[in-house]
Design goal:
six-stranded antiparallel beta sheet, alpha/beta, seven-stranded mixed beta sheet, 23 helices, 39% helix
């Protein structure tokens, strides 16, 4: 142990040779992994100053904890699987080890000893890379106090740094340290990008990029940056729910510059702060294109800005995870040469994703697919996609008329909002086209009532519409931490869940795990109901039957409502009873 500590001391001062560092790494990997890659690549990396532990974790991919613990043992350092920052000394730790040190050199202050006046006596720092000699030297020079090093998993050190300092904390500190402020309103001067050309990281650009990158890392679909009276709140929408993200305390000082940077990226007028604006940002992260919709809204505390992150995903009907009986019905409908298929539900329930998955089945060299959308969010290779532009007269109705003159086989209309669009869609279906669109209704059967209320004649609805598909999104349980559920019979009766088949019923882990961000859920899936306009239903529609009569006939045709479909997802261990109850209504 003494020899190991001496070795760490040598590493910390940069006095360990390349061969010894390589031996430490390979020994910590074990025989199987340690002999499974070209050591000369690692040796060259050590000589060139590459972050060795990061390189090993990213390329050799050992277990984060297993490799770190083995390396700590060889260096005689304490190992902490879960380094927890002492919340009682949060402010003292941040003051003693500022983000420009902690984040930059990957050193998480977990605890310290302080005098009554708040001066530091000693500090315990967690690192995942004890081989980074330069980092150790710079930390020692910056803090100038006794330091005890412990080793911890990379994922936990990174999570701890973000929780302690917030997203982009080190960049923010650099910005403030190198900037002159207007004492009246804390706004930046005109130049908002480069603050100090000698330090490339000290830029508003990098700070905004930190917010965007972290959102993508956390699987966020939306980012909301909202000015408050004394703060600038950043929230991510993850799996349908908004979460407040930890940000540096003095981020309010950057409010104008952050908003201005995002508006500049979106091609918006940064001088116009009184009116809402819309724009787009084309990002590329890790080689993958990310299309981002940007919307600004002026408020009394300043402009808020919302970003919708749209990955250029590949659409496939398999991703909808439909049960076989529903998939068979959908396949039968997609095989028809004409008719209207309407997907219904509220905003944000996944209607567009379902439509594009349907279109992906039909999109081929011998089929012409044309869409008209507001706006075009998703790309479908091989399809002609048109964006609505009301300011020049290109509406859903006028665009649909033009599309039909272009000899399409399949048409997708983003939304049927008025009787004119509805009637043109019906005529398109009756003249041999397969038409897809969306409606805002609470359930599938309500789609008939909605079209009738718009003014579409019942006999046209019966002749043209093939099916209404209603859907909602529910969160999926994290398979890494879900727990067996134990519900009381009274609760199951209250929600209408039959108590049989409980062996695969799970609930969310309240504490969650790292895989799900400690929420108990990871990802979402759709629950559906499909209302087919069969011949008996057509007769009822023409006769002006009530919704109750239509529902009775649907049940005779094998209709399964969203609540029952959701119960099947619960019995497969995919989601929870609570998710289904909150997202669906009793059929």
């Amino acid at each position: 142990m003494v020899r190991a500590k001496e070795e760490f001391a040598a590493i910390s001062t940069g006095n360990t040779g390349t061969n010894r560092v390589v031996e430490l790494v390979c020994g910590s990997l074990g025989p199987a992994l340690g002999n499974g890659f070209d050591r000369s690549v690692l040796e060259e990396g050590v000589r060139n100053g590459v972050a060795v532990v990061d390189w090993v974790l990213d390329n050799v991919q050992p277990g984060d904890s297993e490799f770190g613990e083995a390396l700590a043992l060889r260096l005689g350092l304490p190992w902490e699987e879960d380094p927890v920052v002492d919340e009682g000394d949060f402010e003292k730790l941040k003051r003693t080890c500022p983000p420009t040190v902690g984040i930059k050199y990957r050193a998480l202050p977990v605890r310290g000893q302080f005098t009554e006046s708040g001066d530091v006596r000693s500090l315990t720092l967690a690192t995942y890379d004890p081989l980074a000699s330069f980092d150790r030297v710079m930390v020692r020079r910056a803090l100038d106090c006794p330091i005890e090093w412990v080793v911890a998993p990379r994922r936990r050190v990174r999570a701890g740094l973000q929780k302690l300092y917030g997203v982009g904390g080190h960049i923010l500190d650099d910005l403030i340290a190198n900037r002159e402020w207007d004492s009246d309103d804390f706004d930046f001067k005109e130049k908002v990008n480069v603050i100090d050309e000698s330090d490339e990281e000290a830029t508003v650009v990098n700070f905004v990029n930190s917010i965007l990158n972290e959102a993508l890392n956390q699987r966020a679909t939306d980012i909301h940056i909202e000015p408050l009276a004394h703060d600038l709140r950043v929230r991510y929408r993850i799996d349908g729910l908004l979460r407040v993200i930890s940000v540096p305390e003095n981020i309010k000082k950057l409010q104008t510059s952050v908003i201005a940077r995002l508006k500049l990226m979106a091609g918006l007028d940064i001088a116009e702060k009184r009116k809402p604006q819309d724009g787009r940002i084309a990002l590329r992260v890790g080689g993958e294109p990310i299309d981002t919709r940007v919307a600004t809204i002026p408020g009394i505390e300043g402009e808020s800005i919302s970003l919708r992150l749209l990955g250029q995903e590949q659409f496939n009907i398999e991703k909808l995870e439909m049960f076989p009986y529903l998939r068979k019905d959908v396949d039968d409908i997609l095989a028809k040469p004409n008719g209207i298929v309407l997907v219904t539900g509220p905003t944000g329930c996944g209607k567009s994703t379902s439509l594009f998955c349907f279109l992906s089945v039909l999109n081929s060299d011998d089929t012409k697919v044309v869409t008209i959308e507001d706006p075009v969010e998703n790309r479908l290779a091989g399809a002609l996609q048109i964006a609505v532009r009301p300011e020049i007269g290109l509406t859903f109705a006028s665009g649909l008329r033009s599309i039909l003159r272009g000899d399409p086989n399949v048409v997708m209309v983003g939304e049927i909002r008025d009787v004119e669009t509805a009637e043109i869609a019906v005529q398109a279906a009756l003249t041999g086209h397969l038409v897809f669109s969306t409606l805002h209704t609470n359930d599938s059967v309500g789609g008939i009532t909605r079209l009738a209320d718009m003014g579409v004649e019942p006999f046209l609805i019966a002749a043209a519409v093939r099916a209404f598909i209603a859907q909602r999104l529910v969160r999926k349980l994290c398979v890494s931490c879900r727990q067996p559920a134990d519900y009381s019979p009274d609760y199951l009766r209250l929600v209408g869940f039959a108590p049989h088949g409980m062996e695969n019923v799970y609930k969310a882990n309240e504490d969650g795990c790292e895989s799900c961000g400690h929420t108990g859920y990871r990802g979402r899936t759709a629950v559906y109901e499909l209302f087919r306009v069969s011949e008996p239903v057509q007769e009822l529609v023409v006769a002006g039957a009530s919704k109750q009569d239509l529902m009775r006939q649907a049940m005779l045709d094998g209709f399964v409502n969203m609540r029952e479909y959701g119960w099947q997802k619960v019995r497969e261990g995919v989601t929870t009873i609570e998710e289904v109850v909150s997202s669906t209504e009793v059929g």
